[in-house]
């Protein structure tokens, strides 16, 4: 098997992933989601030899029938099952040591997490170039707000429907006919 120091690092990695994302976790049991995350973040899942389906199948094999989590000994058994599949050209012992090294290296990563914008919130929220639809109508070309005219539909008692193109031309037309 592995040396004592290596097993301590492996157990620390197990605990880090066991408590990841769960404030009530004790670090003694690893759920299926965190097991898949451990395999993905540690690069056990390579897409060719080991896929996420393989990882799920191994998890189901090593856990107790009624349980939804695996313990540390079951975790070691799961790694033992995945090692020859991940490192095909190596012996069972070499493959197991290689997979232990992969797991020991890392902890949970935060990939795909939304980044904080560099610009201030006020700059981002008041950038009128990003406004669409009716909100765009509230600002003039320079980006300055139109005030009350931009927020409310002001009633014009001209007798024409709003946005009518020929508004005010009827009187001119009558004058032209006389």
Automatic annotation (TrEMBL):
Q: Mind telling me which GO cellular component terms the entry cites? A: microtubule
InterPro entries, A to Z: EF-hand-dom_pair (IPR011992), TPP/p25 (IPR008907)
Q: Output compositional bias ranges, type Basic and acidic residues.
A: 134-154
Which stretches of sequence are listed as region Disordered? 132-154
Q: What biological processes does GO assign it?
A: microtubule bundle formation; microtubule polymerization; positive regulation of protein polymerization
Keyword terms, alphabetized: Cytoplasm, Cytoskeleton, Microtubule
Record has Cytoplasm as a keyword: yes
Q: Which domain of life is it from?
A: Eukaryota
Q: What is its main location?
A: cytoplasm
Q: Which Pfam families match?
A: p25-alpha (PF05517)
Q: Where in the cell is it found?
A: Cytoplasm, Cytoskeleton
Q: Which GO terms describe its molecular function?
A: tubulin binding
Q: Which family does it belong to?
A: Belongs to the TPPP family.
Q: What is this protein called?
A: Tubulin polymerization-promoting protein family member 3
The organism of origin for this protein? Cynoglossus semilaevis (Tongue sole)
């Amino acid at each position: 098997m592995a040396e004592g120091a290596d097993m301590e690092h492996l157990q620390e990695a197990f605990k880090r992933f066991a408590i990841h994302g769960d404030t009530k976790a004790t670090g003694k049991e690893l759920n299926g989601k965190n097991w898949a995350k451990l395999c993905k973040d540690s690069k056990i899942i390579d897409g060719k030899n080991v896929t996420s389906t393989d990882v799920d199948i191994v998890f189901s094999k090593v856990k107790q029938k009624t349980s939804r989590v695996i313990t540390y000994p079951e975790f070691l058994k799961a790694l033992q099952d995945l090692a020859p599949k991940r490192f095909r050209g190596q012996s069972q012992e070499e493959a197991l040591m290689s997979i232990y090294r992969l797991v020991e290296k890392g902890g949970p990563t935060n990939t795909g997490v939304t980044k904080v914008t560099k610009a201030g919130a006020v700059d981002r929220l008041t950038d009128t170039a990003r406004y669409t639809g009716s909100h765009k109508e509230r600002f003039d070309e320079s980006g300055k707000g139109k005030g009350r005219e931009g927020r409310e539909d002001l009633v014009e008692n001209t007798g024409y429907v709003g946005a009518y193109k020929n508004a005010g031309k009827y009187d001119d037309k009558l004058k032209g006919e006389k």
